[in-house]
Amino acid sequence: MARIRSVLKYYYHKLYQKFHYDTFKVLVNIGRMQAEANASKNIERLEQAEFQVFSQRGEDGILQYIISKIEIPNKIFIEFGVENYTESNTRFLLINNNWSGLVIDGDKDNIRFIRSDYIYWKYDLTAMHSFIRKDNINRLIGRFLQSGNMHRGLAGDIGLLSVDIDGNDYWIWEAIDTIRPRIVVCEYNSAFGSTLKVSIPYAPDFYRTAAHYSNLYFGASLAAFCHLAEQKGYDFIGTAGAGVNAFFVRKDLSDPFKKCSPGTDFRESANRDSRTKKGRNSFLPHAERLPLIRDLPLVDVVTGESYLIKDLYKL
To answer: How far is it, in rounded angstroms, from Cα 198 to Cα 176?
Structure first.
């Protein structure tokens, strides 16, 4: 079975390479034209700038709009939880804007895929295999930065940090102290609502599917990320329209953007990736997601106290 999977992955990769190499220039050129058009618009909400080239939803367009409004001396990104990097928040920055960066994933096969992709020799990308924890994230970032990727005098002042590991996201961003990115993107769990500042408890070996078969128990609420952003010196400037990612800009650079709040700018996730006990997609509507994980704990990130979901949300 392992041999069959290996062969299938090999041929999938070959087909992917051919298709992507033949079409990426067209996709990038269309995205570039859209980005140039958005840069001159008076945009009230980030979702007005959305377009998708390589991102999950409209994050490519949002990030292009943000970087058109602020100066970024160090065009460097760090993104983790990228899987095989065919869908990501930073691939368009790498290809269209000639940024460089580090991507990290906990699956060795994903890292092999990235390193064999044409982008790995054509662009300045570093792919690192590691399961990210609070006690290793700064070391991983430091190893990358020490490899000659930072301009002198700008240590830690990178362009973008993108956090999406479907688990300890809040605790990992909280732990990072080796960089001060100008832009931060975090995936939030919209099932936790718009008001409570909560996260799953930190567990070094957290794995989303093992924690609960539904894949609904992960991450932190939008309000929790906004609380952490304020502590770290960032303003919340909005979410993607699909209600998956939140965007933050460092306070010394945030003047061009409308400041938002989780109460008014929260979006429910449009993703319907919940699973049954047999691993099939259950397509649960948003209102039915939280009751399914009602017996699991959450931590109030302000007080540090732990509660069961059913008690917090009166389920």
So the answer is: 19
DSSP-derived letter for residue 145 is I
Q: Decide: pTM greater than 0.90.
A: yes
How do 100-105 and 125-129 pair as beta strands? parallel
Long-range contacts at 141-145 (CB < 8 A, ≥ 24 apart): 141/78, 141/102, 141/176, 141/178, 141/179, 142/178, 144/78, 144/102, 145/178, 145/179
Burial 249-270 (b: 16+ CB within 10 A, else e): bbeebbeebeebebeebbbbbe
Overall size of the chain counted in residues: 315
Dmax over CA atoms of the chain, in Å, equals: 55
Band (5; pLDDT cuts 50, 70, 90): low
Q: 8: which residues sit within 8 A by CB, 6+ positions away?
A: none
| Interstrand relation of 76-80 and 100-105 (parallel, antiparallel or unpaired) | parallel
How far apart CA 15 and CA 21 sit, in angstroms, is 10
168 residue type, one letter: N
What is the sign, positive or negative, of the torsion defined by CA atoms of 273, 129, 180, 117? negative
Q: Cβ distance 41 to 125 under 8 Å?
A: no
Instruction: Write down the pLDDT at residue 220.
Output: 98
Q: How far is CA 119 from CA 115, 205, 298, in A?
A: 8, 31, 40
**pLDDT confidence tier of residue 16, bands split at 50, 70 and 90:** low
Task: Give the chain's domains with CATH numbers.
Answer: 2-312 (3.40.50.150)
Question: Helix (H, G, I), strand (E, B), or coil: what is residue 83?
Answer: coil
Q: Is 249 helix (H, G, I), strand (E, B) or coil?
A: strand
